[in-house]
Amino acid sequence: MSWITKVRNGIPFLPKRQSEDQLWHKCKKCETMVFTREWEENGFVCPRCEHHDRIGVNARLAMTFDDGKYETLPSPVVREDPLKFKDSKKYVERMKQARAKTGARDALTNARGKIDGHDAIVGVQDFNFMGGSMGIAVGASVVAGLRAAIDDRLPYILFTAAGGARMQEGILSLMQMPKTTVALAEMREAGLPYIVVLTDPTTGGVTASYAMLGDVQIAEPGALIGFAGQRVIEQTIREKLPEGFQRAEYLLEHGMIDMVVHRHDLRERLGRLIAYLAPEAKVA
Residue 3 domain-assigned? Predict the structure, then answer.
């Protein structure tokens, strides 16, 4: 290392050079290279082809609530690793890695804030946390979000993103399907709206339970939504599936969801729905 390099690196106010990976983002759909800052400022949507990329919990909550302001609700405490599961790695080790990667306790986070001036409670499922898989903690968080909404007479909005049930918890993960369904029945008895926003991907037991039980079903453009994978279905029925099968637009065309909304328009659309379905949530 030359003396000038040592001097330059020792000056604290000189920014380090950004790597090429940090400066550029390659779109997964059109493969166009765009500036990372441009991509992030566009809501993690490709400015060329409008591909909606997956985003984390903090970015999602900041986009959803007015002025990016919200209060995170505490996560329920549940029993961890009830089956003492181990495959190529211990389940507890996988959990530690997921928590270090995302900063979250588990795959679903609830928060409270305002959407277009209306109070609401929002849950966000994070695909970065073990594929957003539904385990005991996720089921407990959904129930906690619904109960908080019932207590405060507010709508509950849930952004789903998951590969299905969490295999490391076996049958206990599948039990979250009826558990959350019962809590949703309580929400309906209270006369409060439950709005689901299906993001890419929403599959497996999540789709077979709380993801498809909303009073209003919204999806982001191009989101993969389904139960079993396309290859499994084709092998089972021995037929070629239609183009775009299990994508948001196909489901809208066939009556499975109510609307497909661009990420840029989502907060305004949610605010309009809350104003219509729960006008008392408006705070003067």
Answer: no
Assigned token pair, 4: 């000038």
Chain centre distance of CA 245: 21
Q: Where residue 280 falls among pLDDT bands split at 50, 70, 90?
A: confident
Task: Identify whether residues 231 and 183 lie together within a single domain.
Answer: yes
Backbone angles phi, psi at 244, to 5 degrees: 75, 10
Span 38-70, pLDDT tens digits: 999 999 999 999 999 999 999 999 999 999 999
Question: Across the chain, where does the E strand assignment appear?
Answer: 24-26, 33-35, 70-72, 108-115, 118-125, 156-162, 194-202, 216-219, 259-260
- Do 148 and 170 belong together in one domain? yes
Q: What is the pTM of this model?
A: 0.90
Contact 159, 120 (CB under 8 A): no
User: Using 50, 70 and 90 to split pLDDT, how confident is the model at 279?
Assistant: confident
How many Å is the Cα radius of gyration of the chain? 21
Evaluate whether 102 touches 126 at the Cβ level (below 8 Å).
yes
How many residues are given for the chain? 284
Mean residue pLDDT across the chain: 92
> Is residue 19 one of the residues assigned to a domain?
no
Residue carrying structure tokens 């939504």: 225
Residues 42 and 111 in one domain: no
Domain that holds residue 135: 54-281
